[in-house]
């Protein structure tokens, strides 16, 4: 892991997952998931937790969570052939999609305690969650039908279109 400090004073610069404001020293930290062939950070929350995907030597994608202190957790929904986290909310919940053993593409929710719940958007054959807010509302792009905003049903596994 390497860290670089520098100052910018000309314009605001968009950087990966945040905005560098004018005149403030910024710290950039580079990291890789241990043992990964490649690491792709995709979302950061206000607490500094980062989620994204990494791929192994066989080019299979998996999910990761990097805490602000640098500790790392990796995860996959059970039976996943590929995991693609997209978003982490302020509560540390992560949503994304994965390839189940059988079928198309499904969604998942990883809670702060590490438990994973998988789900499918109703009336859609493919589920691509793109973001999650503090109320656990998921927004995504359904494939072949369905809506683009899902709310959790009481069973926590199926989501209702809004």
List keywords for this structure.
eight-stranded mixed sheet, Methylamine Dehydrogenase, Chain H, 16 strands, four-stranded antiparallel sheet, mainly beta, disordered C terminus, 162 residues, 52% strand
Number of strands: 16
What is the radius of gyration?
A: 17 Å
How far apart are the termini? 43 Å
Named at the architecture level, the CATH assignment of the largest domain is 7 Propeller
Determine the fraction of residues in helical runs and give it as a percent range. under 10%
Mean pLDDT: 76
Structurally, how many domains make up the residues?
2
* Biggest sheet character: 8 strands, mixed
Q: Spell the H/E element sequence.
A: EEEEEEEEEEEEEEEE
Instruction: Please write the CATH class name of the largest domain.
Output: Mainly Beta
Strand content: over 45%
Strand order of the largest sheet: 9-10-11-12-16-15-14-13
What overall form do the CA principal axes indicate? globular
Supply the helix-strand structural class. Answer: mainly beta
CATH topology (fold) name of the largest domain: Methylamine Dehydrogenase, Chain H
- The fourth-level CATH homologous superfamily of the largest domain is Peptidase/esterase 'gauge' domain
Per DSSP, the total helix count is 0
Plain-language structure description:
The protein has 162 residues and is an all-beta fold. The protein folds into two domains: 1-30, no CATH class; 33-161, Peptidase/esterase 'gauge' domain (Methylamine Dehydrogenase, Chain H, 7 Propeller). The protein is built from no helices and 16 strands. The chain has strands at 2-7, 13-15, 18-20, 25-30, 38-44, 50-55, 61-66, 72-75, 83-88, 94-98, 106-110, 116-121, 126-132, 138-143, 149-152, 158-161. It has an eight-stranded mixed beta sheet, with no helix packed on it. Strand 7 and strand 8 form a beta hairpin.
